[in-house]
Every structure is written in C-alpha cells, then in structure tokens.
Amino acid sequence: MSADLLGKSALVTGASRGIGFAVAAELLGRGADVVISARKAEPLEEAAEQLRGLGHPGKVVAVAGNSGDATARAAQVAAAVEQFGSLDVLINNTGINPVYGSLMDADLEAVRKIFDVNVVAALGYVQEAYRAWMGEHGGAVVNVASVAGLRSTNVIAAYGASKAALIRLTEELAWQLGPTIRVNAVAPGVVKTKFADALYSADEEAAAAFYPMKRLGSPEDVASLIGFLASENAAWITGTTVRVDGGLLATGGI
Fold this sequence. Notes:
CATH class: Alpha Beta
Shape: globular
CATH topology: Rossmann fold
C-alpha cells in the first residue's frame, strides 16, 4: 500500500466496525494518524486496539461521542489537531436507518433523526474541521452516501432521501470550499456489514445475483476508494460522487 498520507491526520466517524473501521485501517496503511469516533466508548476502544495491532506506524486515538452533539463533534475534531498537529482528512461515515418501507407509513420523528445524523451532522463535522484546521490549511472530505441516494427504492426510502441530500451537500461544499478543500462522496451498494444485514441476510446469494460481479461488497472495497479520494492522487477530483456498487446501477436495479 502506498504511503501517500504519511504525515497527514484524519478523523473517521462511525469507525467502531464495518466501513468506518475498514477506512481507518486503510488510512493507517497509507501512513496517516487517525482519530476514530463512534457513539459507544467500549466497542470504539476495542476497535482502536485492533487498529493499533495492525502494525502500521500511524497513531490511533479513540474519542467517543454522539455525532448529533455539537460538543462531541468539536471534541473529536480538536483531538486530531491537539494530538497530531493537523486535521487533513475528514471521513463522514456515521449513518442510521431505523425506518424501512413506504414513506406514507414512516414515523416523522424517525425520519427527522435520519436526516439529523446522515446530513446535518455531516455538515456539522465539516464546519468544525473548517474552523479548527481546514479553513486555513486545506484538506479533503469524503462523505459516505449510498446508491439509494442515486435511485429511488421503496424499501429504504427515507434513508435514500437522506443520502440524496448528502450527495447534494457534497456538491455545494465542493463549490464553497474549493480550491483548498476537496469534498467528494462515495455511493456503496449493499456491503456485508451489520448495518446492512437486513438487506441480505435472508438470502445472500439471491441478493448478490442482482450484481454483475455476483457478490456483495466488502468494507475494504469501499475503504480503498476512500483512501484514494483522501490522497493527493485525487488532487483534481472534487464535487463528485463515485459509485462503488459492483455494477448494480448499471443493471438498472437497486
């Protein structure tokens, strides 16, 4: 793996497992120091210990806190600057989806919570990173969206609407924060994580059959793309949402 993030530091939210954990490992492998965050302290610290055990030279700091809490967001951003001297990369990975099915049956408080976590909190992290470091020094932001934000689906409609908003937010931020801060998003298909378990666990083979690659994604599939977008190898890429979906949308399905 290239050490193209050597001397850089990153904050990865929602990093106690799944895609966030894989992204933290990817960035460490590329030479970065990493702050990881998640809501629950114990599994987050366990994840930090696993990451430290990978043998990469970069340091790992765990700062627990709710992404919807402005004080927690500020503390997580400050930890990177205080511990590592900078915050060069922000990965907005935190997301929730407590609502399945038709929007006509959706509880509006639950929908509001989805947007608060998946969209508003992501903007909050960017604001904190901008104030603490990136506004003066520049950096790279990658938002974890979803193919559900690119094509409608009745199964996870509220979640998809929030991810569509995150994709639009990515474009707005790229325009407002350029040229020194790049802002991109990734749109995964179904990835084999606990978060997406309800979408494939009943029959993984049947779920994978919709994909040209005939398999579901792994957290590492997404993490490697994010590592690239966070690095200077992607220096002329901003305002873009890159699909990492095993070809799902090419089939016309979701």
